[in-house]
Amino acid sequence: MTRPAGSVGSLLAQSIQTERTKMHWFSDLTTIKKLGLGFGLMGALLVVVGWLGLSTGAAANAAFEVSFHRDFAGLHAADSATINVITIARTYRQGMLMPDPNAKEDAIHDIDKFERQAQEDLAVLAPTIVVEANRQKLAESKTMLTEYARLARECVQLSSTDTAKMFEVFKVSSPMGVKIR
Fold it and tell me: What span, in angstroms and rounded, lies between the C-alpha atoms of 43 and 58?
């Protein structure tokens, strides 16, 4: 029994035949074509994942650069200022022990140089401080650094002329250097 071309049964039979054809397209492929299609799809996915990884890595690197230059500049300046204060302490103690007047003058010049560098570092640190209490501590540290360097120079100068006065100045300057750090 044949069905007329426009009947519902004829349309259903054509639909089933079309679905069967759609479903068999993969099984009709040869093994080489299936392997090529699989590796091609995996290669395309690998390219997409690689591109996403590289672009995300580049974005993270850019964010790190911004963070470093904005946030860690103050941390670096604080470390550098601390190192310069420690160097002032070492320099003036060595200058007090040197018997040569020229070496004492060199120590005084070095104290001036390290004080200048520490003040520059504190100036770089200042804009990165957010909390008001810490800004006040920084202002106190700047003032103490100036006084500490003055006392250090005085200790070196007094070490060759008046050791008793030098020890009095040293008693004041030494704790001040620890407090600045």
Answer: 22
What does the DSSP assignment read for the chain? -PPPTTSHHHHHHHHHHHHHHHHTTTTTS-HHHHHHHHHHHHHHHHHHHHHHHHHHHHHHHHHHHHHIIIIIHHHHHHHHHHHHHHHHHHHHHHHHH---HHHHHHHHHHHHHHHHHHHHHHHHHGGG--SHHHHHHHHHHHHHHHHHHHHHHHHHHHTTT-HHHHHHHHHHHHHHHHHH-
24-44 residue pLDDT tens: 777 778 888 888 889 999 999
Q: Within a 10 A sphere around the Cβ of 118, how many other Cβ atoms?
A: 27
- The pTM of this model reads 0.62
- What is the C-alpha to C-alpha distance for residues 70 and 76, in angstroms, rounded to an integer? 11
Please measure the distance between the N-terminal and C-terminal CA atoms of the chain and give it in whole angstroms: 104
User: 140 is written with which tokens?
Assistant: 């106190």
